[in-house]
Design a protein that fits this description.
single chain, alpha/beta
Length: about 230
């Protein structure tokens, strides 16, 4: 049943509107090529493991964003035996990543439709300059009232403080009429629980929810939002 009583929609970016896996793969390959390194499937798997672990620690508040960003390639190079400058590599990677803006299927259509009836905001963890550039080049930024990137807020999803920061800047927010839509259980859905708002889990791979996280709505494709909103 459709619920048109919502007013404010918080949208995650990567994995929800933009195909981060594709963008990341392109950026990694181009950066490795720039440095004359070979990016094999095995190296990609090692990077994925290191990167995922660091971001999980970040979401738990155990490390800060700079530690995630500026240690991951150094840790990768140590593990695979490359004597490279991980920080310089990261800076080039971020620049190249900012040029990638692969939209997920139906994402632009959905955002354009929601824009006509709701106040839309981006809530994303990541590097401010990179995320803003990707939003601009994908044209998604045109439909957003504000964009909240964790680096600029000083907090990150799923922290309650991150959402408090967003809500103060949105102003006069009615939590009962606010929904967050995202693909991550630990970041978006847990964040929604911490913030006291409705959650909508975009779960195209039909992953199980083994965590103590309340999911109000669950969708397999973005167009399923038409059944809710």
């Amino acid at each position: 049943m459709k619920n048109r009583n919502y007013k404010t929609i918080l949208l995650d970016l990567d994995g929800t509107l933009l195909d981060f896996n594709t963008s990341e793969r392109k950026a990694l390959l181009k950066t490795f090529q720039k440095y004359g390194y070979t990016l094999t499937d095995e190296i990609r798997k090692i990077y994925d493991r290191i990167n995922k672990d660091l971001w999980q620690q970040y979401e738990l508040g155990k490390i800060d964003r700079d530690t995630v960003i500026y240690s991951r390639f150094g840790l990768l190079f140590d593990e695979i035996g490359i004597e490279g400058d991980g920080i310089a590599f990261e800076n080039d990677y971020q620049e190249i990543l900012g040029m990638q803006h692969d939209l997920l299927e139906d994402a632009l259509e959905i955002v354009q439709s929601l824009y006509e009836r709701y106040d839309l905001y981006i809530v994303t963890n990541g590097v401010t300059a990179t995320q803003l550039r990707r939003l601009k080049e994908s044209t998604l930024d045109r439909f957003m009232k504000q964009i909240f990137v964790s680096e600029a807020t000083g907090f990150q999803k799923p922290m309650k403080e991150y959402f408090d920061y967003c809500f103060r800047r949105i102003g006069n927010i009615d939590k009962a009429r606010t929904m967050i839509i995202g693909d991550s259980l630990t970041s978006d859905m847990k964040g929604g629980n911490n913030a006291g708002i409705t959650t909508c889990w975009y779960n195209p791979e039909e992953k199980p929810n083994h965590l103590d996280i309340v999911i109000d709505y669950e969708i397999r494709q973005l167009k399923d939002l038409y059944l809710i909103l």
